[in-house]
Amino acid sequence: MIISIACDHGGFPLKTELVKILRAKNYEVLDRGSYDLNRVDYPEYAKAVCEDVVSKTASFGVLICTTGIGMSIYANKWKGIRAALVTNLESAHLTRQHNDSNIITMGARFTSIEDASLYVEAFVNESFEGGRHERRVNMINDKENEQ
Ligand code: RB5
After folding, report:
1. Band of pLDDT at residue 87, cut at 50, 70 and 90
2. Least C-beta-crowded within 10 Å: which of 26, 72, 107, 126?
3. Ligand 1 nearest-atom number relative to CA 70
4. Ligand 1 pocket list (CB less than 6 A)
5. Distance in angstroms (rounded) separating the CA atoms of residues 105 and 65
6. How far is the CA of 142 from the centre of ligand 1 (A)?
7. For 16, what's the count of Cα atoms within 13 Å in the CB-facing half-sphere?
């Protein structure tokens, strides 16, 4: 499974550790930056991950900034992206089951590396339940297509 991941300066230490852990678990990881602690603009880095997910170059995306909020707002402007800001393990499962989310965002200030790794593994290995949830996701897609 290919996972595309990016961060800004606020998420850089967490992203660096997470990439190591995911690769050690044999996930193929596309590390789209940033690559150091220099201050950057998170949309620039989120863009590459959104492109990877929309083009199906990657199955899932992971975006990390200080709060996870900016990354989430940006990614959700993309047609075909459903990005979920995840702060607990149950949400990591539920947003895949119910929303068919394809990007997980996390706030480095509030997420330990142990939790981040648990959330991402739960997210990428969980399935969409479809059924009534599919109807709701279709309503989101309809809204996207109106714009
Ligand atoms: C960067 O200072 C910070 O604004 C960013 O990491 C993120 O938390 C924005 O939502």
Report:
1. very high
2. 26
3. 10
4. 8, 10, 42, 65-67, 69-70
5. 8
6. 30
7. 10
Best of 34, 65, 69 to mutate for ligand 1, by most ligand atoms within 8 A of CB?
65
User: Mean pLDDT across the chain, nearest whole number?
Assistant: 98
- Map out the domains of the chain as residue ranges: 2-146
User: Would you say domain 2-146 falls under CATH 3.40.50.11540?
Assistant: no
Reported as a single tens digit per residue, the pLDDT across 114-146 is: 999 999 999 999 999 999 999 999 999 999 999
Reported as a pLDDT band with limits 50, 70 and 90, residue 74 is: very high
Helix 132-146 with 89-99: angle, nearest 10 deg: 80
The residue whose C-alpha atom lies closest to atom 4 belonging to ligand 1 is 66
> Would you state the structure tokens that stand for residue 84, as one six-digit string?
């979920």
